[in-house]
Design brief:
Elements (H helix, E strand, L loop, with lengths): L9 E2 L3 E5 L5 H9 L16 H4 L1 H11 L3 E7 L5 E10 L2 E8 L8 H14 L1
Antiparallel strand pairs: 1-2, 2-3, 3-4, 4-5
The structure holds coenzyme A.
């Protein structure tokens, strides 16, 4: 736990980042949490019931408690939800998790978003 808090919003060339809220539950479930390919290497199991799983609720609670900072990544051009990046701060260490919806893989979007958050973390 740390008192250091990142900004709630970032803007990259093609995306905007904002805190994940429980309003993102359906997008998370349909976009990646229910996907066998997206969840293949995750430490958590694929979701089969969004209401029971509570990924979005836990993300919202993470921002409130300040132990992790999950952002929803939104494509500027279409306003689509394309995935989540989460920063966990434990100075002098930090680590990241990220998972994107499969239709958006392979376009350099994860690199773009990770670079932005890493740049803030190093600063
Ligand atoms: C990992 C993930 C976010 C990458 O998203 P992306 O937008 O397609 O990534 P990028 O297009 O920015 O690619 C970044 C680099 O990673 C490589 N890469 C992407 N997915 C990869 C995969 N599954 N295996 C190996 N390399 C991969 C790309 O080739 C690229 O390398 P390069 O810069 O040398 O060309 C996406 O594949 C995903 O959500 N996967 C499921 C969840 C996951 O595994 N998350 C990571 C663990 S926390």
């Amino acid at each position: 736990m740390t008192t250091l808090r990142p900004p709630q919003n970032f803007r990259t060339a093609r995306t905007t980042l904002r805190p994940v809220t429980r309003g993102d539950a359906a997008a998370i479930f349909n976009g990646y949490a229910n996907s066998p390919s997206a969840t293949r290497y995750m430490v958590w199991p694929r979701s089969t019931a969004p209401a029971v799983d509570g990924v979005a609720e836990r993300s919202e609670q993470s921002w409130a408690s300040g132990h992790a900072f999950p952002w929803a990544v939104v494509l500027q051009s279409t306003r689509e939800f394309i995935g989540v990046i989460e920063l966990r701060l434990n100075p002098p260490k930090a680590d990241l998790g990220y998972i994107f919806c499969e239709p958006f893989w392979g376009r350099g979007l994860a690199s773009e978003v990770v670079s932005c958050v890493v740049e803030w973390a190093f600063a």
